[in-house]
Amino acid sequence: MMTQHASLRWIVSAALAGILAASSAWAAAPVPKSGGVLNAMHREDPPSLSIIEEATVSVNWGVMPCYNNLVMFDPAKSQETPQAIIGDLAEKWEWRDAGKTLAFTLHRGVRWHDGRPFSSADVKYTFDLIREAPGMSVKLRLNPRKLWYSQIQAIDTPDPATVIFRLKRPQPALLMMMASGYSPVYPAHIPPTELRTRCVGTGPYKLREYRPGELIEYVRNPDYFVKGRPYLDGIRFIIIKERGTRIAALQAGRLDIMMPQEGSKNAGEQLKKAVPSMIITLASHDINTNLLMNFKRAPFTDARVRRALSLAIDRRGFIQAVRQGAALMGASLMPRPWGAWGLGPSALAALPGNGDGAAQKTEARRLLAEAGFGPAKPLRVTLSTRGIALYVDMATYVIDQFKQVGVAATLDQVESAVWFAKLARGDYELGANQTGMGADDPDVTFYENYACGSQRNYSQYCNPEVDRMFDAQSQEPDQTKRQAMVAEIQKRLELDAARPIFAWDLDYFAMWPYVHGFVPHNNVYNNGRLQDVWMSK
Amino acid sequence: MRGFVAHRLGLAAVTLAGMSIVIFVLLRIAPGSIVDLLFSSAGYVDPAEKQQITHELLLDRPIPVQYAQWAGALLHGDLGKSYRYGLPAARLIGPRVPITVELAVMGMAVALLVGLPTGIVSATRQNTAADYGLRIFSLAGLSMPAFWLGMLIILMLVRVFGWIPPMLYVPVRENPGLHLMQFLFPALAVGYRSAALINRMTRSSMLEVLREDYVRTGRAKGLAGRVVVYRHALRNALLPVVTVVGTEFAFLIGGLVVTETVFNLPGVARFLVEAILWRDYPVVQNLVMLIAIVVVLSNLAVDLLYARLDPRVRYT
Questions:
Q1: Mean pLDDT of chain A, nearest integer
Q2: Positions of E strands within A45-89
Q3: Exposed, middle or buried, B312 (CB in 10 Å: 0-12/13-18/19+)?
Q4: Contact across the interface for B270 and A213, Cβ inside 8 Å
Q5: A367 and which of A257, A290, A308, B139 could share a cystine (Cβ 3.0–4.6 Å)?
Q6: What is the mean pLDDT of residues B294-298?
Q7: In which element (H, E) is residue B90 found?
Q8: Which residues neighbour A478 within 8 Å (Cβ) at sequence distance 6 or greater?
């Protein structure tokens, strides 16, 4: 059996090899060929077709081909960083006024799929809609990312090809959020309610048919503003609910490409064994597994109890036992080499749960005894989680770890229908949870999940001092300085047990060798445009 | 006979009315609603927005009012609008019904083609190697869940032939051969269990009948064994089998969920589960009512068949 270090080394090497292979494969790729229809895997019906209103990869993967952003992450680069941002509807952009103004020059001659011309008014409408700007007559039914654009003070459109974002304060991360798959530009002439069931974008593919529960089908947009794109005649996202059937369909050639986040280690190995020519690429999800502790409920109001529970969970053991080695240890931002902001091994080793398991459990027992819990008076808690195997597996592991430090935990399986409502009400003690990030950026992670009053800050952790640290890093234009500030915040969040992170999952992404032009990214939400994908069969 | 049919139809109407109330109330007392789920997919909850959507979907009205609206619309053929998709429920349910019915009919055909002959063979060759073999075969069928068998079939096909049926529904007019292949394997998966049940029922019923005096008399008169078995014994032995076939067919209509999921067939059974998970009340209510109607009509059909098969049975 591989040691944990050997396993980690293997994953890092495989990751680097994957990144290199993907880059070199891209560089050495043969001349693209037009034509063909891509059969892409899809795991479920999207809750709606409105990307802006949803927060699941099931919408982005399946709807992104219809739209464009202002900017996007270069599809050819697996790591999403500020340097990987390229223009989409924006031809160029420029920061002005010491980072308080961001001006975009848009492509001309772009048309919506219904033939209407695209202009700067559509961009203003979209971002005003999301940030719920004063005077907007329409409103989104659900608006999960309003917070992303809360620093926008005003949006000016001096002419149809220019958009100027005026900010309340500098926010270098704004471009990262605009490049996310969650930030498409919507048509101002179509009510957002209609975009839940149909799709009118400027993107490389036009929606041909949406059969709920079966299929999302696109055809090539002949008027696409990027000359020579897309290569494919169309895309069929085939919805297959059963995981075993999805993998069998890919293996049998009924599907050409996997859906991001669907490649477990077992599936990857099975596919490679059955079809040696299948291309399997190790990639990250930008999704972590974590423990929620309700800061408003005793005894989790006691920092010693929170620290003890975080210490009790052996992260290495979790990765080996629950994820079969297909995950990495990390703090609140995606670990390297996948992410740009994650803590290094030495910093991580000093954090609760990442060091020597036995020593940390001893420390956990000591802290619990200090807080008044021990064999005579054991701490009894209820651990809630979604009634889905992925969640129940992690909760079971956590209960076992708690037992080893004398904490008696009861599992409360909650139906998905009420999971988030229960968390938002604060109607839980502990929660075994998963959290995905819309982009690998500290602003996205910190404000959504840890800031005082944020709707998705389910543990209700609130530390005004840490909030000030969030604001400080958010305004810092110097990347090196910002890195250091972000590292400090990550350590602080783990020490406060704000939302202890167990691991960051990895994806064994699979596609047939005749599919070209698709490089799995380190984030599942942002790489679904597919305009550069082509097939050589 | 007419009186009997009218009486049964009246009872069916009362049963369905009762069912409609049960379905409606049970759905609403289940924890969570479509509104919770909409927020769940977006990963957050805003109480003000939640209240607004609850109002938009008319879910803030008293349950009796909601029921009266649904029942009234249903009587006028209006199935309402899906909460989840914002589309007419009839448009979503309509194309799925024939798929499930076809699968159920094919599954039942497999069950009858396999279950009846094997049951007869088992009974006429009681305690022989053939009987033992068929009993093992039927016990395996009863013990094996259809979804597991379905998954085994998929894995076997992909492993041995590198092929599985299409993952998108192929209408019969488009490609009859591929259409048949798409339904054959799931029909085998669901039909096996029913075949096992029919086999056991036929065997035990036949064994009972074969020991009757009139069968012995027939044999004593010199009738050929085949004539005794197929013309005299089988007809009487079929009565309990007909009951099983009727209930199995009704069960198949509502119980194809996993098979449809494993073979990715867009039928009503799979759609019903999705709708339940999403608390899409208009879709769930109408689909469950549809299944209830099928069950009631199946039972009625079984009762009527009794009279046809056994002249001693008379209805007043």
A1: 93
A2: 71-73, 85-87
A3: exposed
A4: yes
A5: A308
A6: 86
A7: helix B89-93
A8: none
**The tokens of A502 are what?**
């167990």
Measured in whole angstroms, how far is the alpha carbon of residue A110 from the centre of its chain? Answer: 29
- Residue that has been written with the tokens 């059909």 in this structure: B301
Residue B5's pLDDT band (cuts 50, 70, 90): confident
Chain B 74-133, CB below 8 Å of chain A: which residues? 84-87, 92
Asked whether the beta carbons of A526 and A440 are under 8 A apart, the reply is no
Pick from A16-20, A213-217, B143-147 the range whose average pLDDT is largest: A213-217
Here the tokens at position A386 are 């979604």
Chain B (139-168) residues lying within 8 Å, Cβ to Cβ, of chain A: 151, 154-155, 157-159, 162-164, 166-168
Contact A54 B42 (CB under 8 A): yes
Compute φ and ψ for A210, nearest 5 degrees: -125, 110
For residues B248 and A344, give the distance between their C-alpha atoms in angstroms, rounded to a whole number. Answer: 61
Residue type, B135: R
Q: Which residue of B has its CA nearest to A425?
A: B45
Distances (CA, A) of B83 to B87, B239, B266: 8, 45, 19
Angstrom distance (rounded) from CA B217 to CA A12:
84
Query: Please, are residues A235 and A205 in contact by the beta-carbon 8 Å criterion?
Result: yes
DSSP secondary structure, A355-379, as one string: S-HHHHHHHHHHHHHHTT-SSSS-E
pLDDT, tens digit, 9 for 90 and up, residues A63-85: 999 999 999 999 999 999 999 99
Q: B31–A144: do the CB atoms touch at under 8 Å?
A: no
pLDDT for A252: 97
Task: Provide DSSP, B195-261.
Answer: HHHHHHHHHHHHHHHHTSHHHHHHHHTT--HHHIIIIIIHHHHHHHHHHHHHHHHHHHHHH-HHHHH
Please state, in angstroms and rounded to a whole number, the distance separating the CA atoms of residues A169 and B219: 102
CA A225, A231, A233, A238 torsion: positive or negative? negative
- Residue B103 near residue B183, CB atoms below 8 Å: yes
Pairing of strands A90-96, A71-73: unpaired
Distance from CA of B67 to the nearest CA of A (A): 22
Please state, in angstroms and as integers, the Cα–Cα distance from residue A515 to each residue in A26, A31, A534, B87, following that order.
12, 13, 6, 35
The amino acid sitting at B70 is W
Instruction: Tell me which residue has tokens 């209805």.
Output: B315
How many residues in chain A?
A: 537
Residue A443 structure tokens: 């602003």
| Alpha-carbon dihedral sign for residues B30, B31, B34, B40 | negative
Average pLDDT, integer, range A344-349: 94
Q: To the nearest whole percent, how much of chain A has pLDDT over 70?
A: 94
pLDDT mean over B49-71: 88
Take residue B7 and report the two structure tokens written for it.
């009486």
Report which of A82, A54, A123, A160 is spatially closest to residue A483, judged by C-alpha positions: A82
Residues of B in contact with A266 (CB under 8 A): none
- With contacts defined as CB-CB under 8 Å, which chain B residues touch A252? 157-158, 162-164
Name the closest residue on chain A to residue B56, using Cα atoms: A141
Q: Do B41 and A417 touch (CB under 8 A)?
A: no
